[in-house]
Amino acid sequence: MRRALTPYLLVLPGGLWLLLFFVVPAATMLSLSLQEGDVVNGYVFTGHWQTYADAIVTYRTQFLRSLTYGAITTLVLVGVAFPVAYWIAVHGGRRKPAYLLLLLSPYFVSFVLRTISWRQLLTDEGVLLGPLKSAGLLSAQFHVLGTPVAVIGGLVYTFLPFMVLPVYVALERIDPRVVEAARDLYAGPAAAFRRVVLPLALPGVFAGVLMTFVPASSDYVTSAVLGGPSTTMIGQVIQAQYLSSSNYPAASALSATLMAVLLGGLFAYARALGTADVLTVAAR
């Protein structure tokens, strides 16, 4: 009897955690999205699905912009993180832990403080643009803050470790003898990388995509600090609806729609590419 209950007792803490901090909030959010009323008189569940249609039509631009920013950020991260992870895994030697620590060291500082620091760096008269404008290399009208470049750059900086680490783990799992065998079969460095290293590293890339696309698409701090009116993301809209307008049904409908879109995309992604190796890499 005791042995039969052991698996259930082991999963109980995690199950309770998911129940309290995911299932209950998600159910509350879905219920609130179908209610009508106001803060003063309270909200009543009426099954008002029109809230979803109105919210999507009104904020479809921010929805599409968020997904676009998330996709671009993820693609840039793959291009930036893979060489970094490859160099650490292949050429890091005994200093691999030190290089990983250096990569993660900025993240011991608060996320908000780091984002605000980037705002100070990217101001028109900051240490980056100020000297270039003074030297006449940039026009006085040139600016970075408030543009998609600033927002996507901030997102790339924020989520870089979430791409580097799973790719690094996948590269570390590759047996060097496999690469040596490819070289023995007269494969050049480029062919060995393309036909051996890259396919074996793909589970890490897939895990990194899963870990970066979702938070990048739903981020609101980076776009609020580094962006402007033309770069508003759906996370900012949801925050404003909750905290400023107190329009809880609309905010809940937007949140539920965003969650459904992201989950649908992730399920399709996992079904197309498989999850066994991805989950193994992500769990390490």
Task: Provide an overview of this structure.
- The protein is an all-alpha fold and 284 residues long.
- The chain has a single domain (68-128, 136-283), classed as MetI-like fold (Orthogonal Bundle), CATH 1.10.3720.
- It contains 13 helices and two strands; from the N terminus they run H-E-E-H-H-H-H-H-H-H-H-H-H-H-H.
- 27% of the residues are buried.
- The mean pLDDT is 88.
Q: Mean pLDDT score, rounded?
A: 88
Order of strands across the main sheet: 1-2
Task: Please state roughly what percent of the residues sit in beta strands, choosing from under 5%, 5-15%, 15-25%, 25-35%, 35-45% or over 45%.
Answer: under 5%
Sheet with the most strands? 2 strands, antiparallel
Low-confidence region ranges: none
| Helix-strand string | HEEHHHHHHHHHHHH
Q: Count structural domains.
A: 1
Q: What Rg, in angstroms, do the CA atoms define?
A: 23 Å
Dominant shape? globular
Helix content: over 70%
Corresponding CATH superfamily: MetI-like
Number of helix segments?
Answer: 13
Structural class: mainly alpha
CATH topology-level name = MetI-like fold
Family: Belongs to the binding-protein-dependent transport system permease family. CysTW subfamily.
GO cellular component, one term: plasma membrane
Protein name: ABC transporter permease
GO biological process, one term: transmembrane transport
